Amino acid sequence: MLTGKQKRFLRSKAHHLNPIFQVGKGGVNDNMIKQVGEALEARELLKVTVLQNCEEDRDTVAQQLSKGTKAEVVQIIGNIIVLYKESKENKQIDLP
After folding, report:
1. Structural domain boundaries in the chain
2. Is 79 in contact with 8 (CB distance < 8 Å)?
3. Is RNA-binding tagged as a keyword (predicted)?
4. Which of 29, 43, 45, 96 is least enclosed, having the fewest CB within 10 Å?
5. Over the chain, what is the mean pLDDT?
6. Per-residue pLDDT tens for 16-26?
């Protein structure tokens, strides 16, 4: 689990990132979870946009993604979910 201080630190890092995944009408599927997992391994921190036509609410989407990829939900703001997972091979972010 992330502490409040760590979440604040990650939010400041994520502020400048652009979302690289979009969850739309199909919702979250295994293929998306796999791709998000691979992207997290490469980047550690990323944003996912929940589109308007998505049938599930953003909290459900965040939960499905974090459970599927074993990542932490740093923040849900508007329709954007920020996810963090420490990389095994490619560690770039040192948490406070």
Report:
1. 4-84
2. no
3. yes
4. 96
5. 94
6. 999 999 999 99
